Amino acid sequence: MLLRLPGLIDPHVHLREPGATHKEDWQSGTSAALAGGVTLVLAMPNTQPPITDTDTLNLVLQAARRKALCDYAQYLGATPENVHLAPGLASRVAGLKMYLDHTYGPLRLADMMTWMGHLAHWPAEVPLAVHAEGRTLAAVILLASFYSRPVHLCHVSRREEIVIIRAAKERGLKVTCEVTPHHLFLSEEDIPAIGQGRAEVRPVLASPVDRQALWDNLEVIDCFATDHAPHTLAEKDGPTPPPGFPGLETALPLLLTAVSEGRLTLDDIVQRYYVNPQRIFRLPSQPETWVEVDAEAAWEIQGANLLTRAGWTPFEGWRVRGRIVRVVVRGTEAFRDGKVLVSPGFGRNVREELA
Ligand SMILES: [Zn+2]
Question: To bridge 40 with a disulfide, which of 71, 258, 260, 279 should be the other Cys (CB 3.0-4.6 Å)?
Answer without folding.
Answer: 71
